[in-house]
Write a structure and sequence with these properties.
Blueprint: H1 3-11, H2 15-24, H3 26-37, H4 40-57, H5 67-88, H6 109-132
Helix pairs in contact: 1-2, 3-4, 3-5, 4-5
Keywords: Sigma factor, Transcription, Transcription regulation
GO biological process, one term: DNA-templated transcription initiation
GO molecular function: sigma factor activity
């Protein structure tokens, strides 16, 4: 069966046809995802997201001949989105506060709140030292 037929079947909701299309190019999908994500687990997650998104949006594909470039664009955009979300996440173990700068009104609210909590902790310690003397 030709590529066009599989794409047309997939557009009609045939999951097996979509799976067949994806399996034909699984190595190239994986290589693309891995080149963005840098590890196998994230690459596989990106591919899973791409499969779901392709299934949901295949009715928007106008030209069946461009299925692979269209689906790889979806994969690349999904990888970029995942990387963008990952960069926003800062783990507590990796977070290192800036010791030398005082928080200002122009800084982030979270940074100001953490600095305020640190000041309160220091003030509590100082008040306890004063009481014990």
């Amino acid at each position: 069966m030709s590529l066009m037929r599989y794409v047309k079947k997939a557009k009609k909701g045939d999951k097996e046809a979509l799976l067949h299309l994806i399996l034909l190019e699984k190595e190239s999908y994986y290589k693309l995802a891995f080149s963005y994500m840098g590890n196998a687990n994230d690459a596989m997650d990106a591919m899973e997201d791409m499969i779901v998104r392709v299934y949901e949006k295949i009715d928007q594909l106008r030209d069946p001949e461009v299925f692979y470039s269209w689906s790889k664009t979806i994969l690349a955009n999904g990888c970029k989105s995942m990387l963008h979300k990952r960069n926003k996440l800062v783990l507590v173990d990796e977070w290192q506060p800036d010791q030398e700068s005082e928080p200002s009104c122009s800084g982030k609210a979270e940074t100001n709140w953490i600095a305020l909590e640190n000041r309160r902790s220091c003030a509590d310690c100082i008040s306890r030292v004063g009481q014990s003397i």
